[in-house]
Amino acid sequence: MAAQGGVLFQEKVSRLVSKQNGKPVLKPNRPLVLKDSVANRKPKKGEASCITEMSLLMACWKQNNFVDGLCSNEIHSFYTCVQKTQATKKNMSEQGDITGGRLSPKQATTLLRRFPNLQSEI
């Protein structure tokens, strides 16, 4: 089913680019071919973790004039949250460089060079 959609798309693009009806409808300024490399960008940082625990700790400190002994429960909950977050990040990094079902730019470039695209337009 997906292959049929790809064929239909290619036919539509070739019809738009062709000069059968006079001028082409679509006039690309670059060839309609994918490059064999990907821009080497760093992945975005994830969202901040343990924000609620940190805000509870800050509120407790503010109420108790920054005395650690009175906020031991909040400190303990914050540190346990940080340890859990670090453990999950470590496990995710050990599983591989594929993050969120996506390849890193280096892996994508390696695959594109191994299996190059057609060098002519559709």
List strands and helices in order, with pairings.
Layout (H helix, E strand, L loop, with lengths): L1 H16 L33 H13 L8 H24 L9 H10 L8
Helix pairs in contact: 2-3
Question: Could you give a short description of this structure?
Answer:
Helix content is 52%, strand content 0%. The chain has 122 residues and is an all-alpha fold.
Give an overview in words.
Helix content is 52%, strand content 0%. With 122 residues, the chain is mainly alpha-helical. Helix 2 (51-63) packs antiparallel against helix 3 (72-95). It is built from four helices and no strands. It comes from Ilyodon furcidens. This is Coiled-coil-helix-coiled-coil-helix domain containing 1. InterPro entries: Cys_alpha_HP_mot_SF (IPR009069), Ribosomal_mS37_met (IPR033620).
- Determine the strand fraction and express it as a percent band: under 5%
Structural class: mainly alpha
What Rg is obtained from the alpha carbons, in whole angstroms?
27 Å
Q: Termini distance?
A: 20 Å
Main β-sheet, in a few words? none
Number-wise, the strands total 0
**What is the arithmetic mean of pLDDT?**
79
Helix content: 40-55%
Order of helices and strands: HHHH
How many helical elements? Answer: 4
Q: What form results from the Cα inertia axes?
A: elongated
Q: Would you identify the regions where 5 or more consecutive residues have pLDDT less than 50?
A: none
Organism: Ilyodon furcidens
Protein name: Coiled-coil-helix-coiled-coil-helix domain containing 1
InterPro entries: Cys_alpha_HP_mot_SF (IPR009069), Ribosomal_mS37_met (IPR033620)
